[in-house]
Amino acid sequence: MNITQDDLRNIFFSGYPAATSWDILDELFIALDRDAITYRTEQLVPKDEFYTVSNLVAVIDGLGPQEKGHMALKEIAKRWLWKRYQVKAICETYFNGLHPDVCSADNRFVIECGTTDPSCIQIFLNDPNVVWVANIPYPFSDDIHLTLHIFGRGPNYVNWQREKINATRDAFQKFHRK
Q1: What DSSP string runs through 94-139?
Q2: Strand partners, 152
Q3: Of the candidates 136, 99, 101, which has an alpha carbon nearest to the alpha carbon of residue 12?
Q4: Closest by alpha carbon to 73, among 131, 14, 7, 139?
């Protein structure tokens, strides 16, 4: 695995340490280390295209932040899904208790944009129809391209889930009053 906890902070919290949920990042880091979750990246578009799209998109009212940069990331994600997989994408639809920024119409691919709660990775991967979950962070000044950070189920995903459930059950039984 070639990813650090600081990398995860940059992916999900745009590098802003005050907003970071370290406990959730720690859990994701452990899952990556144990091959329960896989990680890879794909370059999307040159950063200049992000600024071009930002100037063209309309700002709308909706769930969560909908400023021009966020809307541009969603538009780029939708275009990329169509170009790569020929699937239509929908934005902010209710899915597995959340409203992902972009989701393929068949629910196989989920993309969050900008600052994102990393716990959504596991929530969406628990759905057997989901192939992968990704995030597109806001670009940093030294970025040349926008990068899609893709997380999928690894070979140890089921065992990792089982271990988490058993640990929770054991803790509950230990402290539960009879």
Answers
A1: -BTTB--SEEETTSSEEEEESS--THHHHHHHTSTT--EEEEEPPP
A2: 38, 132
A3: 136
A4: 139
Sign of the torsion angle spanned by Cα atoms 60, 93, 64, 68: negative
| Start-end of H helices in the chain | 5-13, 22-33, 47-56, 68-85, 119-125, 157-175
% of residues, the chain, pLDDT over 90: 56
Quote the tokens at residue 114: 């900008």
pLDDT in tens, 81-118: 999 999 999 988 889 999 999 999 999 999 999 988 89
Distance CA 175, CA 20 (A): 30
pLDDT tens-digit series, residues 146-163: 999 999 999 999 999 898
**Six-digit token pair at 42?**
């794909």
Longest dimension (CA), the chain: 63
Closest CA to 114 of 41, 10, 40: 10
CA-based end-to-end distance of the chain: 44
pTM for the model stands at 0.88
Tokens of 173: 């039984």
